[in-house]
Amino acid sequence: MTHLDSDAALDALLGAADSAVLHTLDQSVNIDGGRAAIFATVTSDERLGTQDASTAGYAPGQHSLSIVAEVISNFGDPSLLSEEVTDPALGSADFVVSSTRSNLLSGAYPVLNAQLERVLGLLEEIAETLARMEVWLIDRGFGVQERVELQAARNTVIFLHGGLSHRVLDRGAVSQGLREAKRSLDEVDQLVRSSPVEVGLTFVFIPGMRSALEGLVALGPLIRRLFSTDDDNTRVPAPTW
Amino acid sequence: MTDTETPQTGVQPAALPAPDPWGTPLPVHDTKAAGTPARVRFACYYEAHLTQLIRHLMRQGAAPHEAADAAQVAFTEAFLMWQSIEHPAAWLRKVAFRAYLRQSPRDEITDTPPERPGGPCPLHAVELKEEEQRVYAALAMLPAAQRQALAWSLDGFTASEIATELGTSPQAVRQNLSRARSRLKTLLGLPDGGTH
Question: How far is A182 from chain B (nearest CA, A)?
Answer without folding.
Answer: 18
